[in-house]
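Hey, quick one: can you model this chain's 3D structure?
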Amino acid sequence: MTGFKGCGTALFTPFKYGKPDLDAMARCVRCQVKAGIDFLVPLGTTGETPTLSDEEKLDVYRCTRENAGGVPVVVGVGTNSVTGTLANIRLLKDADAFLVVAPYYNKPPQRGMYEYFKAIAGETDKPIILYNVPGRTGSNIEAETTLRLASDVSNIVAVKEASGKLDQIYAILDGRPEGFSVLSGNDDDTFKLMSKGADGVISVASNVVPAMMAEFVHAMQDGQFGRAEDLDRKMSALFKNLFIEPNPIPGKAAMALLGQMENSLRLPLVSATPDTVALMKETLENLNIL
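Sure thing. Here's the predicted structure for all 290 residues.
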């Protein structure tokens, strides 16, 4: 199996009247496809997935699939237990691939991390993308563990690296087996990582500016580094401001300003402060999209 490449979008889950707004979801997915996004990632961190019931997860997945126009759909299934993650895989079994986050809260040692991902991958023939985001999970998948999994487990085909540990990610790039993809998990690391050979990004910003992010990533893939650098610089404030409060709070404020969805989140997340809304308005105006 080979990994994923290009620009994937970590999709927001729109809410209305306290429930997933599938009409808004469908519109956003179609917008992503039209903009040239390479693959879609519902039910990840950005999608507020821990707050969703199994029925809601299915609704969000099916809505994404039905509007994806053949674009691959990678679903987030990770929990902090083998049982919970495999339950999500069974629930969402028709997905093209699964994004599996490092077990959160447990803080496993590296040998536990290895055995966990190996056990998950052994229960499906679908591709698995590892997701390393220590700022959310409290534990880091070290480069040696990622490379061991990439070499030992045939359907572990990629890693989404959001650790911000550039030396660690470069070590993965240097040591990975053929066909294993390295995807940036931070928009603002994408230029640096793709310059070193990374294969793309799973992006938050592409919810807001899908065509611009797709153009940026495709320019990197095509070796048009000057054009890509210009776009990276143009979007740098957006990359930063989308995390001025915890993701996806600022992003949903931006999408509401653009008329794409309501500025509605589920507790324990809350809507953006007035200052954040004002900042996102200024950011969008500077990008000439508002």
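One thing worth noting: The mean pLDDT is 97.
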